[in-house]
Specification:
Layout (H helix, E strand, L loop, with lengths): L3 H11 L5 H5 L5 H31 L26 H13 L1
């Protein structure tokens, strides 16, 4: 079969993740390829941190779904979605942003 480094290069070359093909493109300078590698690593790290915050919030914060009976007074078109944010969620996201 295909060796691991060759398989990774093939994956990066054909990936739909925007920065990945830039990393292995031999027509790009080493600096540009390094730039894209750093950007992709930082994006991966930021994604990991946000997932950790989401998981922590899921495990430790109460989530409630409420059926509102005041819907007759609402003037919304179908389909619609209402999202109620709380300050505690913003604080968790802010803390994750500060880690990055």
């Amino acid at each position: 079969g295909m060796r691991f480094p060759a398989a990774v290069k093939t994956y990066l070359d054909n990936s739909s993740v925007h920065g990945f093909p830039h990393i292995t493109n031999q027509n790009k300078s080493l600096a540009e390829r390094g730039f894209w590698a750093v950007i992709c690593l930082l994006a991966g790290y930021a994604t990991w941190e946000l997932l950790q915050v989401s998981l922590h919030t899921y495990k430790n914060k109460a989530v409630s779904f409420i059926a509102d009976t005041n819907y007759l007074r609402f003037n919304t078109t179908f389909p619609s979605l209402s999202v109620c944010e709380t300050d505690s969620n913003f604080e968790a996201i802010k803390l994750a942003g500060e880690k990055i």
